[in-house]
Every structure is written in C-alpha cells, then in structure tokens.
Amino acid sequence: MTCRILLHSINGRTRKVGEELAWELGAQLHEIDIDTPEHSLAGRLMTRLSSLVARSLSIAVPDQPWQRSDLLILGAPVGNGRAARPLRQWLESHPDLPARVALLLTSDEADYPAQAVEDLTTLTGRKPVAVLHVSDRDISHGTWKGRLEHFLDQCVVRYRNSA
Ligand SMILES: Cc1cc2nc3c(=O)[nH]c(=O)nc-3n(C[C@H](O)[C@H](O)[C@H](O)COP(=O)(O)O)c2cc1C
Fold it and tell me: Which residues pair with 82 in a beta bridge?
C-alpha cells in the first residue's frame, strides 16, 4: 500500500504526529511550506503564524503523484475553527487526489474540530476513511497514542476492504 502524508505545520506539533504516522505506515511524509520573503526571524515567524488565518499565501507543495497513492493523509493545525489556510489553498487548486483520504487535525481545544473536518470533506470531495484529532494537551501528555492504533486500523482495514 502506497501511503503519502501531506501536512502543514507551524510550530511542529502536526509534523511530530505526522512523523509518527509515517513511521507506523511506512509512508512518505511531505510538507506544504509557505514562502517567507521577510529576512528577519520575527518577520518569518509572523508570516508563519498568519498562515493559519490568512486569505491567500504563496505556498510551496512538493510535486508528487498524489492520485497514485492508495491513501493520502492530509494534516494541518486548526486556526479559527478551520484547517490551516495553506492546506485549504492547495485543495482549492483542485489537485488530483486518490479515492482514499484520511485527515490529521491538531488544535489547542480538546473539542473535535467538526467544522474543519466538514470543510476538508467538501474541499477534497472525499469522505475521509479516518480522522485523527490531536489536541495540544494530548501531544504534551502523549495521550493521543491511545487513539493511534484505531486510526491506523481504519486506514488499513478499509484499504483491505476496498482492495
Ligand atoms: C493564529 C492561531 C489561531 C489558532 N486558532 C485555533 C482555533 O481556532 N482552534 C483551536 O483549537 N486551536 C487554534 N490554534 C492552535 C493550533 O491549532 C494548535 O496549537 C496546533 O497544535 C498547532 O499545530 P502546529 O504546531 O503544527 O503548528 C490556533 C493557533 C494560532 C497560532
């Protein structure tokens, strides 16, 4: 099974979870970056933080045959209740996606990010085969790992069923 992960992360939490998923699934991990023309550290930081809520950004997405994956996991932090802008912006460009998409969302609130999931379902045109929501508290306490197996099972079992 060819699995790719494409995520955007500002402070590294989404990346950290994505790295663990990549390890468990033997998946390739890719990141959506934003171009930060400012040269100062503060300027770059401001651009990165605004990426959660900005209207339009200059983004860099690796050139990969996404549609040829058996599973594509899309990951992003939640900002103002929605998935971070860089991921939504890429999806708005109508990239070719595989049939099976799963979601990874991180947020500081413990509540399930229903709005962000709904948005991404619409933008991808796919009902996600699995959704992993990890709060900042889950990450600092390591409690998200208890849900990891269920997420991986959903990704893999549903693959077997549809293969
Ligand atoms: C500008 C900004 C807006 C945010 N808005 C929300 C929000 O609406 N809901 C939420 O639960 N978390 C919100 N967060 C928290 C991030 O989603 C959370 O810290 C996430 O783990 C960051 O992921 P990262 O480390 O990969 O960047 C916001 C963070 C920032 C910087």
Answer: 79
